[in-house]
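Tutorial handout. Part one gives the primary structure; part two gives the three-dimensional structure as tokens.
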Amino acid sequence: MGAILNGMARHSGVIPYGATFLIFSDYMRASIRLAALMGIRVIYVFTHDSIGLGEDGPTHQPVEHLAALRAMPNLHVIRPADANETAAAWKMALERTTGPSALVLTRQKLPVLPPEAVFRDGNVYRGAYIYEEGAGGRPEVILMASGSEVHVAVAAKKLLEAAGIPARVVSFLCWERFREQPVPYRETVLPPSVRARVSVEAGSTFGWERYIGEGGVSVGIDRFGASAPGDRVLKELGITAENVASKAKALL
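Part two.
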């Protein structure tokens, strides 16, 4: 499929896209790499993006795939948290003409985030943005997440604030886009003075260290998954609001 998409893009006249499970991006890696190397506009739509897919088991549950795709030069990997962020991700992919984009989507049923929060000031298009701010605008801890785990971070924020700890939630849908932003914007989202940071993503924690820093911790999956209902697998492997809140408290 990947070679066909590349050929269509080189022929011009269309914006080709293809879709499959994220786990099967392994079989397309050579063609994705060529698309990135040639700088052509191809859009990949990868679904079933984590251990949350459940009973298909570890053979079909991607773990290292987000980290592997993010390591590829000139590929934008976009993991939206809901329908509104998915619309923004599609717009970013359509407008990008200098290389391919990969939309990485969940299979879980998720709440829809308020559009006024997602699209506020257009910051969703910057790759990462402050989705919810702590009381008084002075967070003691920053919770950053992508995709379905944004909702886990939001729930963890409520637990922390119930304990008197103001927390900020950053939706981190595209690392590559965020790195392109001016330093003042990046430091507004992730102020250097706030060293207590927790990343939440149902995949390999590899790479998050550049954003959590030395004083932070990553909640993720650094092992293969398991066969069980998706909600149970996520709970058993620690992708829960309670675990995220506990890790944040431990940092403080």
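Part three, for discussion. The domain at 2-251 is CATH 3.40.50.920 (Rossmann fold). The chain has eleven helices and nine strands.
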